[in-house]
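Support request from a user on the community tier.

User writes: "When I paste my structure tokens into the form, the page sometimes reloads and wipes my input. The last time it worked, I copied everything first. Here is what I submitted, just in case something in the input itself triggers the reload:"
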């Protein structure tokens, strides 16, 4: 299959954000095989109104021990729901492949943002286009490690989520 017949990275990432988390988990290896550069995580936030877990798939990049995600909402004038949830409840769950961890999420400060904008130019080609499409400043979010989830907790959490 040549590259012209493949969906763009951003098209696949956008499609994945609508998949139920269980479907994404099942398809994760197939997606990575098709889009070699795809770095996709599952972010679980606590719903601001419902208090229920909400999980979305999104691309990320690493900055030292931190993970970086962008609250672009595809250039919409509204923040994505996960970002609003994260601001109210910054303790989030992150899953990359089989690894599940709790992390603290925060919006990048002005100085962090300046540093990360340089990385965004190479890591997320869509960011500039999304920023031009909206009047809001698109938040850059840092996911910082907390204590790792034990293997027993990991198995328990995965069992509950897949029931």
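"...and here is what came back when it finally went through:"
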């Amino acid at each position: 299959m040549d590259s012209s017949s493949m969906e763009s990275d951003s098209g696949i990432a956008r499609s994945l954000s609508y998949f139920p988390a269980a479907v994404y988990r099942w398809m994760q290896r197939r997606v990575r095989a098709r889009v070699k550069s795809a770095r996709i995580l599952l972010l679980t936030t606590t719903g601001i109104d419902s208090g229920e877990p909400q999980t979305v798939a999104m691309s990320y990049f690493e900055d030292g021990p931190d993970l970086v995600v962008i609250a672009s909402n595809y250039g919409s004038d509204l923040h994505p729901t996960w970002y609003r949830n994260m601001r109210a409840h910054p303790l989030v769950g992150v899953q990359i492949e089989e690894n599940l961890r709790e992390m603290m999420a925060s919006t990048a400060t002005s100085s962090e943002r300046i540093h990360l904008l340089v990385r965004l130019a190479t890591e997320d080609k869509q960011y500039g286009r999304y920023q031009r499409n909206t009047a809001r400043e698109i938040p850059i979010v840092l996911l910082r490690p907390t204590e790792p989830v034990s293997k027993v907790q990991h198995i328990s959490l995965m069992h509950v989520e897949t029931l």
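Agent notes: The reload is a front-end session timeout and is unrelated to the input. The radius of gyration is 16 Å. The chain has six helices and seven strands. Escalated to web team.
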